[in-house]
Design brief:
two-stranded antiparallel sheet; mainly alpha; Amino acid/polyamine transporter I; 2% strand
């Protein structure tokens, strides 16, 4: 049993991060890392979650909910920043857990991260396909419904006929495209991600700037609607419930830490990448939510989904006629929003696929997974074989599995990772307080404890079947660990 809790020394981990020992190419600057963070955080969640949370939970005070969620996420971000500056290794939460709580916990979190990265990338690619079909429809380009849906889904056509899906080809296309880009090189991937991030941030800023002039301040009254008598339905409990919902719009910044071995100056740049991307996204989220609930009443968003809440807000940006009907001033903006969603999803898929291969890269180097996951391409200096394997796995999942099966599994996997990273800071401050730290989490133990508490709070509000799927997933991981990984562990075999 003692071998389950064997730990890697910080000195050993730091030596692994040296370029000559890991084979990965250091090309990422602080700016690249910030772009990676923004690329992972800002997806379509901003455009869809905000309206629903305002309509059903918080009203105009959805901005307060975003602040609460940002603070909760910030606790975990500060802990990630300390570890990333001290242990600049590709494994992220997996590596941090290996150094603080031992191999078995490290395996659990490494296996758990598959939910966040690989499964998350597949889920996002399915949504990307849906929005591509919608965008092409604006230009009378209609893909066969059977080739844009999984076999478990169906669609009703304009003539009323029902078509059953065969394979989701657009989802497969975007996964293959992003995977090939990652194989080509981290520098090239970061360049494309930077362009995509610039596009979607530009669209968000356009929405904010154009909408600001159409804000009707009467829509902010009351700013905190009275509670309906049900917990989470407006009032202060509604603000908290909305915070739990919009929290998931922030998920993704932790993927920055998986790129530590490809950063030029990880001790300085990793904290910048994590914390600055979080800060930028928080400001954009607050302004976006403020404009969205200002141009029209929050009640206008009730009963709509997808990008419809944003479309409703855009339709209220215009002049009010004598009959009370608004003539939209920017009808083209809805198309731009969908374009931003497509760009946003593309960068999320890119960063998630990158994060997954880097976590498995570290696990393979430790012997817990086969060597194929840590083999580096001699020319591109990327884990090309690992990229190809995940391209196949994620593509098959995206092609044939409906997105709603594992959507919430991504969230619970992320929150579990956050909890272990926050706990790891507490453990390492107690066991090795004199270790050099380029960045130190402030107010320890308060900040890590608040990070653990807030993430547990979010997990409690997730549905019971999500917990059941997590338990089953971890059970599969235990079988792999005791059947293969424990026997091949380099650290255990040394002992």
């Amino acid at each position: 049993m003692r071998s389950l809790w064997i730990k890697k020394s910080i000195t050993e981990l730091q030596s692994e991060s040296a370029e000559e020992n890991n084979g990965l190419k250091r090309t990422l600057t602080a700016r690249s890392l910030v772009a990676l963070g923004i690329g992972a955080i800002i997806g379509a969640g901003l455009f869809s979650i905000t309206g629903g949370a305002a309509a059903n939970n918080a009203g105009p005070s959805i901005t307060i909910s975003f602040v609460i969620a940002a603070v909760a996420c910030g606790f975990a971000g500060l802990c990630y920043a300390e570890f990333a500056s001290m242990i600049p290794v590709a494994g992220s939460a997996y590596t941090y857990s290996y150094a603080t709580m031992g191999e078995f916990i490290a395996w659990i979190i490494g296996w758990d991260l598959v939910l966040e990265y690989a499964v998350g990338a597949a889920t996002v690619s399915i949504s990307w396909s849906r929005y591509l079909v919608k965008f092409l429809g604006y230009y009378d380009i209609h893909l066969p419904a059977s080739l844009t849906l999984s076999p478990w889904n169906s669609a009703t056509l304009a003539d009323g006929s029902i078509v059953h899906g065969m394979i989701n080809l657009p989802a497969v296309f975007i996964v293959i495209l992003m995977s090939l880009l990652l194989i080509k090189g981290t520098k090239e991937s970061a360049l494309v991600n930077g362009i995509i991030v610039g596009l979607k941030v530009a669209v968000v800023l356009v929405f904010i700037l154009l909408g600001w002039g159409y804000i009707n301040y009467d829509n902010y009254s009351p700013y905190i609607p009275a509670n309906t008598g049900e917990f989470g339905s407006f009032g202060m409990s509604g603000i908290v419930r909305a915070a739990a919902i919009v929290f998931f719009a922030y998920i993704g910044f932790d993927a920055v830490s998986t790129a530590a071995q490809e950063a030029k100056n990880p001790k300085r740049d990793m904290p910048i990448g994590i914390l600055v991307s979080l800060a930028i996204c928080t400001v954009l989220y607050l302004l976006f939510a403020h404009v969205m609930t200002g141009v029209t009443s929050y009640t206008s968003f009730q009963g709509v989904d997808g990008i419809a809440p944003v479309a409703v807000a855009i339709d209220h940006m215009g002049e009010v006629g004598a009959n009370g009907v608004v003539t939209p001033a920017y009808p083209w903006l809805n198309k731009a929003i969908i374009l931003a969603i497509l760009a946003g999803y593309s960068s999320v898929i890119l960063v998630m696929l990158m994060g997954q291969t880097r976590v498995f890269f570290s696990m393979s180097q430790d012997g817990l997974l086969p060597k194929v996951f840590s083999q580096v391409h001699p020319k591109f200096r990327t884990p090309a074989k690992s990229n190809l394997l995940f391209m196949l796995f994620v593509s098959l999942f995206a092609a044939f599995v409906p997105a709603d099966i594992v959507g919430e599994m991504t969230s619970i996997g992320t929150l579990l990772a956050f909890i272990l990273v926050c706990a790891g800071v507490l453990v390492l401050r107690k066991t090795q307080p004199d270790l050099p730290r380029a960045f130190k989490t402030p107010l320890v133990p308060l900040v890590p404890l608040l990070g653990i508490a807030s993430c547990l709070f979010m997990m409690v509000f997730l549905p019971g079947d999500t917990w059941l799927r997590l338990i089953i997933w971890l059970g599969i991981g235990f079988v792999i660990y005791f059947g293969y990984s424990r026997k091949h562990s380099k650290l255990n075999n040394k002992k």
